[in-house]
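Comment thread on ticket #2218

A.B. wrote:
> Attaching the input chain for the structure job we discussed in standup.
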Amino acid sequence: MNLSIRMCVRKLVFLFIFTALTSSTAQAENNQPLTLDSLIKEALVSNPEILSTKNAFESASARIPQAASLRDPMIEYEYDKITADRMLTGDPMKTFSISQDIPFPTKLYLRAKIASKLAKMAYENYKAKERDIIARVKSSYAELALIYKSIEINKENKDILGQLSKSATTRYGADQGTQADALKAQVELARVDNELIMLEQKRLTAQAKLNVLLNRDPKDNLGVPSAEPAIKFNRPLDDFYNLALNNNPELKAYRYAIDRGKAAYDLSLNEFAPDFTVKFKQMVVKGHAEDASWAGTVGVTIPLWFFQKQSFGVKEMKSDLAMVKTEYKAKENSVLFDLNDAYARATANKKLVELYETAFMPQAKEAVNVAVKGYESGKSDFLTVLDSQRMFIDFKLDHYKAILELRIALADLEKTVGTDIDF
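C.D. wrote:
> Ran it. Output below, let me know if you need it in another format.
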């Protein structure tokens, strides 16, 4: 009985230690800083949209050897009782045969070429989806970082307003201020509390959006985003033009589509060429194949109805090729427009960020200091202090919103260019 008790105690101690270690490990993992690079790596591995396009590319690649292969040969066995009486023995005729259809040689090459171009198109679609998901992860990460920063700023503002409220209440008790000042401070505090509630709802939404991109449970807690380095954006638009024309995956896919259309057009011309059939027959007499009892056949297809079939096939492929070329031009125009739009947004928000940092926020901070000193000396009213503080907070929030818009624009710029850019 004592031995059983000791064993139970040991099990409980082991369970306690294991639970403690597991909890500490999980806590350590949760306390790890949330970095953009780690999220991008996870999205590239786990995002369902990326995995879907990757599987589509692998499927298209598997069609290449199939397109270059011959059709399966046909093996036949013939049991002929009808002509048995013509044989000296009166036994039925038994014949084995094998036949193979052989298309004109260039047709196999062109079919394989078409399949290869389709596989390359699928690959570029896969890379385009990667760029799209990376841009969305960067935008969602920047949005989540802004929300956390907004919460931090509003909490700091709440602390300052709390001090101002206490000061207004104290001055009112000493007959140096009015009751309206104290009430205004309380109203401003209530407004900040309401803003914090709305920011928490936005935080949960932004976190869920990022979790979905990572193929996680939308309710998972990601933690606080790490601080990102300052953005250095000073490259000319022409640099991005060249990068986009050479690296944009969608444009690459269209160029492969044009190559595929040219191969399909060449194949339609080759459909006028004949295909072949080779057949070998061997007669079996009394269970043995006789050397002199065999036959060979070679057949050739004749494109007799070319005026109704092959000629219209050529016309179809020619029209398809012309259509793809015009679609490529339209896509090129669309990519260059997106590039101009993203570059203009990035340039404008970069200037706004610099203005907020060098002019707006320092001036607003100075206005708050002047208003507080004036209120303490009785030269200005409490409303001026509140307005100055609110304006300063609004400038700080607008500063980080401009950073958010700048990072979104840069993410769109990288997506359009089709490659990572060192900003």
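A.B. wrote:
> Thanks. Noting for the ticket: The chain has two domains: 35-69+103-271+309-417, 70-102+274-308.
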